[in-house]
Structure to design on (307 residues):
């Protein structure tokens, strides 16, 4: 059977590997052509031009450029889009969610590495009152803070903040401090993490794909179930540490305490951890010490002493 038709009235399917191409006529009838090379020459002679997408599929240069663009897109998403999404989501998180996540995390830690504090109750009350009496930086807003004292020989001198405003302090940190002002400096630094919701942002950055998938299928509980463990293992970036240091420096200055007291305490804690590692015959950072979650640098110390 033979048919004639003007080229502009025909619809030709796109090339798809070695699969036959389909030519559809105006009335809906069609035919399949297996001679792809011959059909290509015929279409070219008739002025038919493949779309850009089709031509790019068979162009090595276009494929390499597409791959390069995809890599750039992934890197840009990881570097800027995911942190931005985490920051926006953390800022909108309701207090009830923060309370629940913090309570679950505290329960997890109490059942593993934390033990009841051996500090006298009077000492705990005195430190709590002194910290609660400190003035916040002007732009800090309202922060609901609660100190929790624990003993943790495996963690050593340590302090870390949970999203709701709970700040955990170990007996070992209190014993190591040279003064209460050094303790207050560490607590102010942790308060900086709370104010900027760093812990929640880290958790969300690490779980953003899982959260989106869980939201799509309607089962967020499976992702949230792993949040306490993720929060307890969170490692702050140097940018987050600098931001918390700046908050602490502002807070200490407002209250007439030199920010250098925080630098003194950080150096004291570092020396203690290095000595502990040497005593145990190990080298490098411990997986559970303060600096495994709070990276220390010479630049941080310098900035605090100059604040």
């Amino acid at each position: 059977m033979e048919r004639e038709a003007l080229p502009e009235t025909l619809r030709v399917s796109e090339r798809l590997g070695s699969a036959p191409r389909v030519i559809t006529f105006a009335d809906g009838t069609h035919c399949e052509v297996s001679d792809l090379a011959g059909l290509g020459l015929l279409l070219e002679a008739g002025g038919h031009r493949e779309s850009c997408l089709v031509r790019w599929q068979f162009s090595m240069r276009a494929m390499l450029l597409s791959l390069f663009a995809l890599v750039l897109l992934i890197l840009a998403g990881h570097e800027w889009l995911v942190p931005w999404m985490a920051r926006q989501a953390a800022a909108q998180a309701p207090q009830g969610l923060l309370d629940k996540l913090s309570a679950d995390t505290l329960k997890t830690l109490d059942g593993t590495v934390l033990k009841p504090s051996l500090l006298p109750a009077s000492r705990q009350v005195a430190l709590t009152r002194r910290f609660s009496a400190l003035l916040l930086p002007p732009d800090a807003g309202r922060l609901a803070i609660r100190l929790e004292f624990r003993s943790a020989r495996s963690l050593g001198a340590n302090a870390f903040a949970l999203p709701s405003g709970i700040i955990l302090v170990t007996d070992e940190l209190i014993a190591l401090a040279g003064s209460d002002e050094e303790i207050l400096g560490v607590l102010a630094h942790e308060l900086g993490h709370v104010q900027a919701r760093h812990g929640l942002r880290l958790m969300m950055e690490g779980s953003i794909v899982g959260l989106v998938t869980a939201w799509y299928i309607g089962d967020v509980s499976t992702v949230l179930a792993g949040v306490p463990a993720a929060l307890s293992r969170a490692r702050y970036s140097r940018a987050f540490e600098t931001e918390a240091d700046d908050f602490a420096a502002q807070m200490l200055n407002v209250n007439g305490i030199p920010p250098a007291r925080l630098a003194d305490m950080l150096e004291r804690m570092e020396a203690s951890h290095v000595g502990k590692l040497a005593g145990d015959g190990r080298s490098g950072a411990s997986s559970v010490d303060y600096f495994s979650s709070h990276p220390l640098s010479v630049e941080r110390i310098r900035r605090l002493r100059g604040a």
